[in-house]
Recover the amino acids of this structure.
């Protein structure tokens, strides 16, 4: 079951927002913001940092799919998209925009809460995967820098690879800097000498 969430509602139909607000409040969730257009939804999402966003596809100024794409790119919160249409092209656009769940109106309680729960879990999983991916990218970047720096030391001082790496480790510990920072300085110093 979902924890109590801070939710942003974005729909140009005031009656639908009222119905959703009542359903969500009855379930213990808190509505932290409401709007009738996509541009304002993006602004409120960035300001309020809600736990969850429920947004209509068709809205004035900026549609829900465009707004959802911006929100997803900033990794703010899971977006549940609502629409009166179940056309395949809208489903594909929503998926491409990073929307995690999709419901066709009219929204019923027995559909809303399971969809929210799945969307929240998928968002957490994606967030975790993105963090792991960032770590791997950082690790790969560091590895490339270390290899370049070792190559520079090996060429300049006639060292073997293991010896160059050990010297770098000792120096980084003595100076209390990361191996990545040390590798960057070695590469920068070598580039300066070549100029």
């Amino acid at each position: 079951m979902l924890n109590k969430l801070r939710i942003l509602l974005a729909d140009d139909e005031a009656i639908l927002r009222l119905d959703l607000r009542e359903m969500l409040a009855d379930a213990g969730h808190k509505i932290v913001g409401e709007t009738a257009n996509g541009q304002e939804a993006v602004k409120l999402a960035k300001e309020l940092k809600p736990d969850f966003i429920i947004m209509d596809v068709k809205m004035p100024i900026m549609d829900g799919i465009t707004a959802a794409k911006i929100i997803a790119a900033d990794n703010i919160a899971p977006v549940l998209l609502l629409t009166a249409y179940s056309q395949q092209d809208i489903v594909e656009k929503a998926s491409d925009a990073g929307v995690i769940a999709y419901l066709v109106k009219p929204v019923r309680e027995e559909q809303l809460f399971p969809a929210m729960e799945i969307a929240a879990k998928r968002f957490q999983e994606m967030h975790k995967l993105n963090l792991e991916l960032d770590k791997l990218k950082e690790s790969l970047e560091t590895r490339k820098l270390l290899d370049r720096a070792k190559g520079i030391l090996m060429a300049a001082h006639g060292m073997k690879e293991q010896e160059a790496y050990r010297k770098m480790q000792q120096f980084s510990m003595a100076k209390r800097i990361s191996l990545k920072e040390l590798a960057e300085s070695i590469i920068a110093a070598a580039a300066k000498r070549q100029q």
About this structure: The mean pLDDT is 89. Residues 88 and 94 are 10 Å apart (CA to CA). The longest helix spans residues 109-157. The domain at 133-193 is CATH 1.10.10.10 (Arc Repressor Mutant, subunit A).
